[in-house]
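Weekly puzzle thread! Below is a chain. First person to post its structure in token form gets bragging rights.
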Amino acid sequence: MEKSLYKVVEDWDIKLKQHSLKRRILLWFGSGSAIILILFSLAFNYFLNESINSSIEDKLQLLSHQVIAQNISENVGYAIIKENTIIKKNKKFTLKNYKSYLHQNNSFFIMEHERDDDYINALYITKYNDKLLLVYKTNIDNKIENFQDVLLWLVPILLLVLVILASRMIDKILLPINRLIEATSSVSVMKFSHNIALPKESDEIRELVISFNKMIERLRDGVQRLDRFNSDVSHELKTPLTVIQGEIEISLRKIREPEVYERSMQTIFKQSKQIENIVEQLLLLTKYTKENIKESFETCNLDSILLDCIDKYEKQLKAKNLHLEIKTIETISLNANATLMNLIFSNLIDNAIKYTPNDKNIYIELYQKNKIVFTIEDEGVGIEKEQLSKVTDRFFRVDESRNKNVKGFGLGLSIVNNSIGLHNGELSIDSINNGLKVTVSL
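Winning reply:
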């Protein structure tokens, strides 16, 4: 019961977190819309009120000119005042407290109707010789009051409609994000099959979905590589460990001659060294990354590094009676990791020597045109074209087409390819008629 209750609470918490973005957007949109609508209503009401008052004032001013011209209209009340006393007025002039307006700075006044809020009264005062002319009009239709009542109901209704429409639009906008949330929730180490359908609109959401799908593809590829790597490591380490275990079991089964123990210890030592070499090469593959490799860069003389590597393999060349022909080695400097450059040259020369039969030739070039190019060509057995794309994979060995007696773990070309990639270079391997040609471009 407690677990099920906890699960319900957790699900609600997830839902609330998922919808918090929508709530925040609606809150900001609703608040902003409310402020804008209120300010618009106030401004519109003010300017409409000013416009109506100005229109009434203009009409009363025109009527005052008619009164002065003795073209008197019976639709308006007027009074002529001298020394605060009315000396002439008509029946329409019913304003009793007119004296309170005589000494004010304004000449136009709006007054509420005595009995009906739907109407207003207006007074206009102007000088007429040494007298004052008061024009007074009653029962003016107060349209602004009706409009204010409409705005009072229209603003909240309009705000509600805007929020509902915004909610619908946000749901549509957030639909790909909700799908993204569902997809990320379902992703696990064993499950990378969930790709999200691309939205029709070409916008930031589409770019986000594309990035997510690419990330899934990279993760899927990484997990596949990791599974293969684990399988390969298990396979490569299993053989020496089995040999070591077998030797130990034989030695412990009964008491034997010292020579037997010595042979067992030599075998164990040899297999342990093999495990050590595998581990060292694997660590070298993971030691450097794109992020930290540049910290180890220094100015390197590639020609000197290459010549040192060639000198190191002089005995192996003589042992197989191989002729290493240097076509050209130019003096070239490069900002690079000297250890990895030495490793690149050493591995490629070592492979060429291993897989070239006795009394054959190996050709080397190092030159610079648009790029720095290193090539090594042997007269070995070559590699079938369909397997060329796999030779840089970890632990891959072409036993059926190369010399089965050659020792190795299948890590050399993988290390070379990784090292070249860290220098933003390219590795090209081509099988030719009488051997293999490897090209490194930096």
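Puzzle host: Confirmed. Bonus trivia for everyone else. Confidence is low (pLDDT under 50) at residues 400-404.
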